[in-house]
Write a structure and sequence with these properties.
alpha+beta, Alpha-Beta Plaits, 4 strands, elongated, binds iron/sulfur cluster
């Protein structure tokens, strides 16, 4: 399917909760506060995501997947 042209990017933020060890790094380091961590990291504000991949790079558990949609 052809990609829709938009003036903004939209990203899907997925955390595989079985992999998350609750280290809190993504909560601390995401520049736009996508994550909160009541127990495991949850992307509560995915609409903020700008696709920088910082969280993916720092998650030692490889629990986060960012996909441009
Ligand atoms: S950086 Fe990875 S392991 Fe750490 S809280 Fe975030 S998702 Fe979980
Ligand atoms: S890709 Fe960047 S903006 Fe998006 S959730 Fe991860 S750290 Fe935050």
């Amino acid at each position: 399917m052809a990609k829709v042209r938009r003036d903004y990017e939209v990203y899907l933020v997925y955390v595989e909760s079985e992999r998350c060890d609750s280290c809190g790094e993504c909560v601390k380091m995401c520049p736009v506060d996508v994550f909160e961590m009541p127990h495991k990291a949850i992307p509560v504000r995915p609409v903020n995501c700008m696709g920088c991949q910082t969280c993916v790079a720092l998650c030692k558990s490889k629990a986060i997947v960012i996909t441009e949609i």
